[in-house]
Design brief:
four-stranded antiparallel β-sheet; about 100 residues; Arylsulfatase, C-terminal domain; two-stranded antiparallel ribbon; globular; alpha+beta; single chain
């Protein structure tokens, strides 16, 4: 899995939106929300809002996995890809005077 786009948000627990490419299936998934709190990181797949019969705004995932174990494997692979991406791009967000010459 490869991070194709990383858009930092840093608003509350929402850290970023990412797009990933999965070479084994040739698929790109866009707008995955990445959250972080107290050292824990989790992701939310792309979703859409809808209004239920009580008039409440709810969200439903656009992409589904057959069970929790498959989602957990995907989530772990994504976290690994995020860690690699963040290490490779750590200096991108530093002011120029902080970067080694």
């Amino acid at each position: 899995m490869e991070i194709k786009q990383y858009r930092a948000v840093n608003r509350g627990q929402l850290k970023a939106y990412v797009s990933v490419f999965i070479p084994s299936v040739g698929m790109e998934i866009r707008d995955i929300a990445v959250f972080q709190k107290d050292g824990e990181q989790w992701v939310r797949l792309p979703s859409r809002e809808y209004e239920n019969s009580e008039g409440e705004i709810k969200r439903t995932n656009i992409i589904a996995f057959p069970d929790k174990a498959v989602f957990e494997r995907f989530s772990q692979a994504l976290k690994t890809a995020l860690h690699t991406y963040e290490q490779q791009h750590a200096r991108d967000n530093e002011p120029p005077y902080m970067r080694p010459q």
